[in-house]
Amino acid sequence: MNVITISREFGSGGRELGKRLADILDIAYYDKEIISAIAGKSGLDERYVANISEKGICTYPLTFGRTLSLYTDVQDNNMKILVTQQQILKELADKGDCVIVGRCADVILREYNPFNLFIYASMSSKIRRCRERASADEKFTDHEMEKRIKRIDKERAKYSELFLDVKWGAKEGYHLCINTSDIEIEKLTPFVAEYAKNWFKRNE
Amino acid sequence: MNVITISREFGSGGRELGKRLADILDIAYYDKEIISAIAGKSGLDERYVANISEKGICTYPLTFGRTLSLYTDVQDNNMKILVTQQQILKELADKGDCVIVGRCADVILREYNPFNLFIYASMSSKIRRCRERASADEKFTDHEMEKRIKRIDKERAKYSELFLDVKWGAKEGYHLCINTSDIEIEKLTPFVAEYAKNWFKRNE
Fold this sequence. Notes:
Two copies of one chain form a homodimer.
Chain A: E1 3-8, H1 14-25, E2 28-30, H2 32-42, H3 46-55, E3 63-64, E4 67-68, H4 71-95, E5 98-101, H5 105-108, E6 115-120, H6 123-133, H7 142-160, E7 176-179, H8 185-203
């Protein structure tokens, strides 16, 4: 199976690149679908799963039905989510060629020999991208936006530390690192698609 | 002018990529030519210039004719080489589109808005590449080869600290970082060429 994984800084356009890449290559794209699959499999609340899925920490109250869980349950459930996520990532990869965004798929699916991309950008460019896709009622200042971007990336890095022997975002862990500052993702995608195709050909 | 700069780990195939890229794009390629130009302009020994040019440190005895120079002269001449190098890089960039390998051209030519590549690879892949291009009488063990690779990269990083506000090799300083582990540079080059063309189009 040809698996492309996309790790990305918040606001770098990595998700958009992933979607477009899957479109161009005509292969499956998995991102939030993973959350629903984990929720379905584990019986846990989807919002809760979303929080754990890329953070590995609990910031959303965990409930089964209407019962707020105890701390030990939370720990158990976090573990459950991580384990379920690993199973699901492998199930998805087994289904066929795909693009998977985030969730340490680059490491979890190492045995599939995936093509691992890291997408990053300058802070000003990330703030601009976040503004473009924000809803009209979102009223963050640049400073608040920057804090938010840094917080989310810190969580992603922390989560990845569970699996990784190299630092999240350190180029050594990826096959190609793309700086998307001031770049239109749409224009970028065909080149990445060609690069990926060539990369897989090499491994055939 | 469209300037492509290539920073690279020793043994990553960055120089080969640079040459091939210049060939495909039909633009000038500058690497060792820079050394000769500096030597010519400064009147200094070419081997000495080569040592300073990317290291910023003196490991080769400096002579004018047959007179071994004093330490203060060495310092002055190192400065002279660095300044001359900066002038020459700008002169080359003014001449027309080009690929420049090493020498912190990415930073020195910042005003030209260059397309900055960083080429890297796993240690095993770098050792393999070094072996392939080594002369028959070179008898390094893997361990010695690794030490050599690390030493050269350390010198490059040290030199770049003179100019850079970010760490040498930190992806933030580059537009594209390519992991060449187990990749044939020849096959890789057309994609990088297309990427670069597209990148410059964006800036027109």
